[in-house]
Write a structure and sequence with these properties.
Blueprint: H1 8-22, E1 46-50, E2 57-62, H2 63-79
Antiparallel strand pairs: 1-2
Length: 98
């Protein structure tokens, strides 16, 4: 099942943008566009981009730009240092050293 941010409201917003992209009137809204031009050529793959927090849409973006942005943010998130477990407290032993 799709994540909540990609359900009905997202699909409706994408449908609203689809005719604009199909007419060749859409430009990539991704802050760092990776293509030679921001223009989204009709018939090419595109996505409905959203802000970094995932709380609002920014408009149509090239699929490549969207995938790259998601991968970059995901890699940064996974690269965060994991907290180290606390060492176990030393327990007294019944063994006597002679």
């Amino acid at each position: 099942m799709a994540k909540p941010k990609y359900r009905h409201a997202h699909q409706q917003e994408r449908k609203r943008w689809a005719p604009i992209v199909a007419r060749g009137e859409a430009f990539c809204a991704q802050p760092r566009c990776l293509m030679r031009t921001r223009w989204i050529r009709p018939g090419t793959a595109w996505a409905l981009g959203h802000n970094d927090a995932g709380t609002s849409w920014i408009g149509p973006v090239h699929k490549r730009c969207n995938d790259s942005d998601g991968a970059t943010r995901g890699n940064k998130m996974r690269a965060r240092p994991k907290p180290r477990p606390q060492p176990l407290a030393k327990r007294p032993t019944n063994r006597w050293v002679l």
